[in-house]
UniProtKB/TrEMBL annotation:
TM helices/strands, residue ranges: 43-63, 75-95, 115-138, 150-169, 253-274, 295-321, 341-363, 383-405, 510-531, 551-578
Cross-referenced Pfam families: Otopetrin
Protein family membership: Belongs to the otopetrin family.
GO cellular component terms, semicolon-separated: plasma membrane
Name listed for the protein in its UniProt record: OTOP2 protein
Gene, per the UniProt record: Otop2
Keyword annotations: Cell membrane, Hydrogen ion transport, Ion channel, Ion transport, Membrane, Transmembrane, Transmembrane helix, Transport
InterPro entries per record: Otopetrin
Membrane topology (UniProt): Multi-pass membrane protein
Subcellular location field: Cell membrane
Amino acid sequence: MGCGHKDDKASLASSQIASFSHQPHQPPSTPASKEVWKKGGRMFSILLAVHLALLACTLVSSGAFEKIAVHDYDVFFLLTVMMLIVIVWIIFYLVGTSRCPDAILCKDSHAGPIWLRGGLILFAIFSLVMDVFKIGYYSSFYSCLSAIKIIYPIVQAIFVVVQTYFLWISAKDCVHVHLNVTRCGLMLTLTTNLAVWMSAVTDESVHKAHSKLKKNATEEILRWLLKAGMRSSSAEECNCNSQICQIFKNGYFWLYPFNIEYSLFASAMVYVMWKNVGRFIDHHSHHIHRLKFRLFRRTFFVGIVLGLIILVSGLGVLILYEVQVNSSTESSKKSQALTMYYIFNIVCLGLMSLVCIGGSVVYRFDKRDMDRHKNPTRTLDVALLMGAALGQYAISYYSIVAIVASTPRDAISALNLTYALLMIAQHTFQNIFIIEGLHRQPPKEDHKHNSHQKDLYGLTFVNINAVSLRVPDSGSTLAPSTASGTEAIHPSDLVRSLTAPKKMNWRRKFLREISMLLLLSNIILWIMPAFGARPQFDNDTELNFYGDSMWPAIVDICLPFGIFYRMHAVASLLEVYIMS
């Protein structure tokens, strides 16, 4: 498996066809060459990923229940082995594959944008802090626990560091050597991230449900809610009584949302790398747009101000909700907290829906061309937006059915129904707005207008009196300047050059305001359920209608997708903001 040998039958066949043709042989990177997709290698790597994902899903889901003879350390052992294999492959890729001659003939400029890699690093830092807390927590009573529980967070920390470095420097690579090994390695990396994500979601969901019912639930109800890290067999022997132990325990559970988002971000970037293996990019048709992120340029600050108001208000609502619902047993305070939560979300979702509709209308009058080039990153963004929205759709429709079919109906039920309907509408309109923005060409008018205005600057603003004197009433063109050799300029062209940029800037400013408002609003709508504000567990309507077993299971399955949707929408809206 040398560096110069490409294990690709398709690429070998294409080179043979090119050698027998009458046309001169062209290198793979030329525009005339076609992309070579390895169907066999792709299928094998997909099958490998499917089987590993099913095995991990089986162990993770089984380890959450006490009556099933699958222990939490069995899950930790599998995840540790998978992460170690991925670490070895990443080192092989960085040291061997990427340094081979002609290994990376081209790079995908759309893959791994700076804001996505920056978000990955941010979540990686919090994931490392979570691993430190987890190591401290398990080390507090290491004498009565399996060693794998301490080894697992250590290996996970190493895995996060190695993978983050790998994605930072290699996210744009289009690899052309060791194709089958690279595809299988990337799929193994993707599956490992998804397995870690499933484990974190399961552990967090069981912990949340356990905390909600801990005060009033009986042993029969709590039996299946015991979290995977502390089963009943070791709960009596391994009590966390010290204050430092409680700090470590609560700390790593509060940091779980960041680790969950890190795994999903890494999975998305690895998938794009897998799609780019063996890909040839036509640089003549694959335009590279070097856009600069200017936050406070060409903006009225309306979107930023409104977004910050929503963000700060949402944090206040979250704090009050946590205090009144989780720390108080009075039903009146619980009703007040739910009412406050629903009113805030109704106002926020209604405003977001309106601005999304306004942005979509502005796009209808946008003169920019649609970007129809092949772009795996954009295709993945759209698929993730549409797929992740299904989780919140499912919760909303279940809530609507329960509220409409239940009696009696009170004010909280009416607010809950309005909240569910607006959640569906907001997801739909926001997806339309984001997809419209992602498929638009970046603005190209700036350079043209700027160069034209530079030529006309002295003519327009310095010699404006001379121009007005020399322009005849009939509207004929101005005489060309024999000294400078510039072209003749018609007065109507002069007027258009001054007015057109203003119209263009108005649309772009409006779209930027909308993007920034939606971005900040999605951040608070991600923070609230990720850090404990989950009215699905506190509202009795759905719980009484579907039962104590069905409704928590629906929420535990669907809510992580809704949380991921918000964070992915933030990344997509940031791209729409920069592209506007």
